[in-house]
Amino acid sequence: MAKNFVRWMTRGGVTGWVCLLLVLVTRGAGAGAAAEPDGSAAFFAAEKVARIEIEMAAEALPVLRRDPHEYVRATLREGGAVFKEVGVHLKGGLGTFQSVDEKPSFTLNFDKFTKEQKFHGMDKVHLNNAAEDDSLLMEYLAADLFRAAGVPCPRVTQARVSLNGRDLGMYVFKEGFDGTFLQRHFQSSDGGFYDPGLSHDINELKPKASRTGAKTTGDLKALWDAAHEANLTVRLRRMGETLDVERFVTFIAMEALVGHDDGYMVNRNNYRIYFDPQLKRFVFMPTGMDQVFAEECPFYPNGVGVLAQTLVEVPEGKRRYEARMVELFQTVWSVPELEKTIDRVQRQVRTVLGPAEIAAHAKAVGNLKEMIRTQTRRIEEQVAAIKRGRAGKVGKKKK
After folding, report:
1. Residue 20: in which H helix or E strand, if any?
2. What single-letter DSSP state applies at residue 66?
3. What tens digit of pLDDT does each residue of 352-372 get?
4. Cα–Cα distance for residue pair 128/168, rounded to 1 Å
5. Whole-model pTM above 0.85?
6. For residue 102, is it within any domain?
7. CA 344: distance to chain centroid?
8. Is 72 part of a structural domain of the chain?
9. How many domains does the chain have?
10. How far is residue 156's CA from residue 82's CA, in Å, rounded to a whole number?
């Protein structure tokens, strides 16, 4: 048992042991919650590519052609297990969406039509077609780094997927922001959950309809108003009354470090918010990290993500942001460990690829490693500038 635990902890290289320490010390990350309430850790620690077969009735396909976001019923097979009456709809945005007749991305909701049915302890999972990440590893690595920093983030692995017997190829498998995810990361899963959709800031959000039974949803308007407090000496204090400022600073610092240029800070996109009923604070979480390690991603807010912008306009907020960026680079970022993880996953993926696929994947992995090295050099320059007191300026607010 101890041996298996060590294998699980070392699965993600440098991030495993750091995650353990942060789970023990980070607020809301498990002080009153079970460390693994759903048993899903074994699935992500399996060190093999999942084989997933989806079967839909013929009449389900026209439904998805007409409305890709409408749930249809399907049967799913994986590892000898059969899951019936699984709710399935398509997903994806600009650049990633593909029709059911191509290589679609899927959302799989296991208890949509069958009460309490779960997939390795999870209610909802996603199969992303990796249309913008041939390495299959960008979200995998970025998510590991965010969790190592103490920010709740879905776990990721890889899967080979077929639909009605048609091999669709390799996918990125990702757990959903469901109730079991919230139970794993927070002391209570009864808070409001917010999905901003495409490029919306917090002033436009409402709690997700499926969680309207939440005991408390929080007051995003109060946070928005606090962020616009004209008196800089009280702005940070007011924001801290409704926002977990410490974790938010970590969240935007990690977005900058991993080069998430389609995240909240620089594009108010690809993020989720949970109102933690125990802390009575909002917590930001990343998603959609299939285009990270981007050189064009700035290290400072550019005026798009309002909370990030207004926080670093406060001198103390900027100081804390820069200090956290330096600290995270020194504690969770390690190129050798990242490359070790990449090599391990590449070996796993090769076992289910054909010769041409192996060559293409090897090229994508090589490009990814070079992107990480380039990003590391950029961060080193930024950290040096911060230490000299000559770091870049915060961008201007955008109208």
Report:
1. helix 14-25
2. H
3. 999 999 999 999 999 999 999
4. 11
5. yes
6. yes
7. 21
8. yes
9. 1
10. 22
Tell the residue number behind the tokens 């077609």, with chain if given.
129
Question: What does the alpha-carbon distance between residue 14 and residue 333 come to, in Å, rounded to a whole number?
Answer: 8
Domain that holds residue 106: 2-180
CA–CA–CA angle 270, 288, 26 (5° rounding): 80
Is 71:114 a contact under the CB 8 Å cutoff? no
Q: Which residues have C-beta within 8 Å of that of residue 108, sequence separation ≥ 6? A: 76, 86, 87, 88, 119, 124, 125, 126, 127
- Counting Cβ atoms within 10 Å, is residue 194 exposed (0-12), middle (13-18) or buried (19+)? buried
In a domain, 374, yes or no: no
β-bridge partners, 74: 56, 86
Torsion sign, CA atoms 6, 8, 10, 14: negative
Tens-place pLDDT, residues 271-287: 999 999 999 999 999 99
- Residue 29, in any domain of the structure: yes
Report which residue type is found at 217.
T
Q: What DSSP string runs through 180-246?
A: HHHHHHSS-S-B-EE---SS--GGG----GGGTT-SB---HHHHHHHHT-S-HHHHHHHHTTTB-HH
Q: And the tokens for 93?
A: 């945005």
pLDDT of residue 397: 52
Please give the C-alpha separations between residue 255 and each of 10, 251, 306, in angstroms, as whole numbers.
Answer: 24, 6, 15
Cα-to-chain-centroid distance, residue 359? 28
| Rounded (5°) CA angle 373-379-385 | 145
> Which residues, 6+ apart, have CB-to-CB distance to 127 below 8 Å?
52, 105, 106, 108, 159, 161, 171, 172, 173, 174
What is the C-alpha to C-alpha distance for residues 215 and 191, in angstroms, rounded to an integer?
6
Compute the distance between CA of residue 319 and CA of residue 302 in angstroms, rounded to an integer: 17
The residue type at 267: N
Percent of the chain with pLDDT over 90: 80
Instruction: Give the Cα separation of 68 and 18 in Å (integer).
Output: 40
Q: Which of 104, 93, 388, 12 is nearest to 269 (CA)?
A: 93
3-state secondary structure 285-308: EECCCCCCCCCCCCCCCCCCCHHH
Q: How far apart are CA 271 and CA 227, in angstroms?
A: 18
For residue 209, what are the contacts with CB-CB under 8 A and spacing of at least 6? none
